[in-house]
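Trying the structure run again after the queue cleared.
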Amino acid sequence: MDISKLDEGLYGTYKMFSVRADGEKNTANGIRQVVEALTKYLKEGNLNFFTRTNESRDKIRSIDREELAVYLAEYFFQMSKLRQPENDDELVFSLKMISLGHDDAIEQMKKCLLGQQKNIGGLQADDIARMVCSKYSQLEMTQLDEQRRTVTKKIEQTIDPKYQVSNLNVNSQLVNYCREEVLDGRQIALQNEMREQKLTPRPRREYMLGDDMVAITDMGNTRDTQQDSVLMLYHPENNKYKFLMVADGMGGAVDGDKASQEIAKQMVTWFEGLPAEIFEDKNSQYLQNEWNKKLNEINENILSSAPGSGSTYVGAIVGENFTTVASIGDSRCYIYDARDHLQQVTVDDNLNFLAFKKKWDDFMKKEGRRQLTPSELRLRRSEKEKLRFKRGNNILTKCLGAGSKSPIQASFTRLKNESYKALMLFSDGVTDCLSDTQLFTVTKNTPTAKLAAKIVDQAVTSYSLKPEYGGNPEYITRIEAGKDNTSAVVFDKRRVEDKEEGSER
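Done. Tokens:
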């Protein structure tokens, strides 16, 4: 289906009916007319509600009704997971569609749009059709309006000031649904509402930003609430500067969700308020100092506003030529490097991991070497894998909140941007359930657009078994699939590089 024809056909009608008789704009009326025209065409094939202006009717006529119905149903289904509902009816319907599962939801919505099904549950087909068509119309017509305003501004910038046309600063951004849900507190609330209403056994939120960033947070199989928060941002002055974050509210603490939400909200305003020059290579130390200062402010806020709550933290800022990673706790950052190897670049702030790290650091210092032999690497990898099964593996030495009044010092790592193909941030719901070998295999063999989802899906469906640890009181023998909230934020440069290579060919 030619989406450009659909949008152009709808926009012609929207523009025609958005202008009142007195010349003022009435966008609500334009949206109402587009929704009416769409629902009539889908159900009856009636094109009379579309304007003839700019060949709007002819463009819609060229689109197959059933194909259009499937497209709109798919759009609504995805937006239900990505964007806050406009009203209570839409919230209930969105949650119902998600609970049905993708294929069943698309089929039932399609039939309602085409007039082949009378209702879904207690909601009538005509109401469903208006809801689905309204979701598409409101979002797409608004974005087309914004695009045209941006073009106008760019043109105005080229006009000589003597003609008295104001030059305006153009700053066009993609809609970031992850950011919006963090700021209005809906990211976690929506998942908890799904669980309370028993609409799905495992609530989750999925977000995509541009061609390169994906964030997913899943409640998992055993938790009753979501306490993880995820975030991804472009800097408002230049979208080559990026921010990614996972905050894992501590399940054993009071109101861990409040701590992780507080961190995510404050990170939005902090990152977007940074001057663009701070991401230049020469300012790396200044960036780290400011970052650590902000984390300490957040720590104090958590202690005063939500005493007893706590959260881990891992964040990454992609700067001019380097990426800086900050971590507190045991949420991890990995890279899929330029040699197609998987590396953990953060240190877990827990007793078992720190003891493991000290052992190998001391060994390297004693040997006077910077690299391990292949056999030593295999042994180190085996010992790290055992940590997943060791009792007390989640006893943290450092976190945000949870009564820690001492100044916090985040651990910082600096990476060359060219040194990695993918940057991945995980809560321990991923890394407790999947070994590094499993993460490597998934990363290497999964199409980039599906990588974050594949990793989360594996973590919530795969259990790990080590029967040889039976009888050893220091270890467990089984790790249940989805034993915790499970979150992943991925910046995958392979997607952008593949697209650029394709355009050259």
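DSSP finds 17 helices and 17 strands in the chain. Worth checking whether this holds up in the mutant runs.
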